[in-house]
Predict the 3D structure of the following.
Amino acid sequence: MAQQPSIPKGTRDFSPLEVQRRHYIMNIIQRHFELYGFMPIETPSFENSDTLMGNYGEEGDRLIFKILNSGEYLEKVDPKLLQTGKENQLTSQISEKALRYDLTVPFARYVVQNQNDITFPFKRYQMQNVWRADRPQKGRFREFTQCDADVVGSNSLLQEVELVQLYDAVFTDLKLHSCTIKINNRKVLAGIAQVMGAEDKLIDFTVALDKLDKIGKKKVQEEMLSKGIEQQAIDILDPVFSLSGSYAEKIASMKELLKNSEIGLKGIEELEFINTSILQVPLKSAILDLDITLARGLNYYTGCIFEVAAPEGVSIGSIGGGGRYDDLTGIFGLKDVSGVGISFGLDRIYLVLEQLELFPNSVRAGVEVLFINFGIKEAQYCSLWLSRFRESGIKTELYPDAAKMKKQLTYADRNAIPYVILAGEDEITKGKLNLKNMASSEQFLLTPEEVISKLS
């Protein structure tokens, strides 16, 4: 017996309807990207390993899919190394390439390689798949699509303001109201670590803090203790864990906590500027919220960081995120080029729209009209109008065989085709078409022009 085919865990096939719905989301995102002045680029699905490794933190590096070298990849490996079982050393010898983990680091590499042809500030958008060797669960896949917008070559905080507005514009257009755009600043986190006396543990501190909404306060504290952060230092975090109130009230509380930290107060100043700017042109449907526990565990963020939560009542992880990186291109030799960007999580946005039943009825797969095939003469008559219908923007199909009527109507029903056209001898003689509404079973004897007008 032949083995049943399967796909790898964390990947998916998409039906025609699912693809149409994904295109609906991507088209809206793309339209707003271009309205805000971003230009499209694409990069390869895989990069050289040394391009990716070391830029996502220890946890991120473990999630990168490595690609084995072509041919006899074990031939050049020292047999003694194989016996030691030292995975890191072995991997570097048998794998020189890896699937991209995100779109930001490949973008930084692109900027450096094309710096002589780019006019700064450079605004780009990119909508491509990425891969992570994560544990699959609801809303978390090993292959998924990111829709990114980044601008490099500008230190202006007006870029952060525009990215918040971009999030708001897209989610408003998707009818996905009351999304919460959480914002924080890595300078604030550095200031907190400074006040705690744990500056040398900044990465361990932020990685642990970033898990607060997933594992809770107690587990976060335990992880910090395991990383060598003292209990006395952790106790200083209590005001942060319990911070509440409006954006302005949280700012006031953090100013007091960080009064002796220059870098912390700089981060607070940046957060204040963004909020003041947004208040001048209020958001249409999204909510901007200061979340001091937001850390985002990627090493390259240096300033403001963002994360978008779905409307209340929808149980899913973040549907967007991003932040400021002051020197990401520096890892490839181009120093002092600041950038900031955001990402839309297409797959999670899809799940949210599906759960809330926000996909318009007009977003559907397949054709709108099926011409019934009664025979060669009738099919030739119908063929005269196929091109005219299609030129008018109506998705049209002629059933290929003169099968029984029941079979053709079943085909239309199973493919959710809303209308069929019946054109037999009577209709041909009169120069008309019989339009049947599949949902109501109503039929209308109309001229082809009237049918086109009705369906358009």
Remarks:
- Residues 369-455 form a domain with the Rossmann fold fold (CATH 3.40.50.800).
